[in-house]
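Slack export, channel: ligand-projects

TW: morning all. Re-posting the request from yesterday since it got buried. We need the structure predicted with the small molecule present, not the apo form. The ligand is fe (ii) ion; the SMILES is in the block with the sequence. No rush, but it would help planning for next week.
GE: picking it up
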Amino acid sequence: MTTATTIFRQLFEPVSSTYTYLLGCPETGEAVLIDPVMPAWQRDLQVVHELGLRLVMTMDTHIHADHISSASQLKREAGSRIGIPAVDALPCTDVLIHDGLPLRIGSIRVDPMHTPGHTDNHFALVVGDRVFTGDALLIDGCGRTDFQSGDARALYQSVRGKLFGLPGETLVYPAHDYQGRWVSSIAQEKQRNPRLGGDRALEDFVDLMANLELPYPKFIDHAVPGNRQCGQCPPELPEHLRQYCQEMAESPQG
Ligand SMILES: [Fe+2]
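GE: finished. pasting the full token output, ligand included:
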């Protein structure tokens, strides 16, 4: 049973309200970070080292639009390999993430699950009785579907047809939360997710997502090209966006 012994930390990055997940193998000392974020790379690496682990891989669930991944920075600093969905075909990828092809970090087995809809190439990552749902399924919510080849019909199928097929007790760890919630479960989201839970019908969901009237994502024009290079900060960011590439002032930890 992978997660019985897996070392686990949930780390919060406040600029983009992103959760980064650290998984460590107690036998080999190898560690992986899921969705690491640029302003927090030093904090994240420090946590890895404090646990006596060695960072061997980073994995991004998708090409993010709301922050810059620290995958490349961590590769430079720690030699970790960069895992990205294979369908994105980024030349900077070291480890290709394929649907249904498990990846191993020591004794940890990661099962990638293609969950398109927020982006067409989005993946959830199943590790034992935990699922890292990226921006597909959030706690009481889901990722938006109006950019990056988003598709509400595909997201409905990914969440209700795939993620909701996991055992109810599976713990749901999202890539973001904006209200201080940390973890949920498949059973809870099936029951009470206001967008996708209960008996929500496909056409209702498509209609709901088409009428959210969300503002244009303020960092997307910088983040997407930066993340298509596995996490490169643009050379000249406007003042109000520099926090996305600056080191965190404090080190909040989960
Ligand atoms: Fe996203």
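GE: first-pass observations. DSSP finds seven helices and 14 strands in the chain. The mean pLDDT is 95.
TW: perfect, thank you
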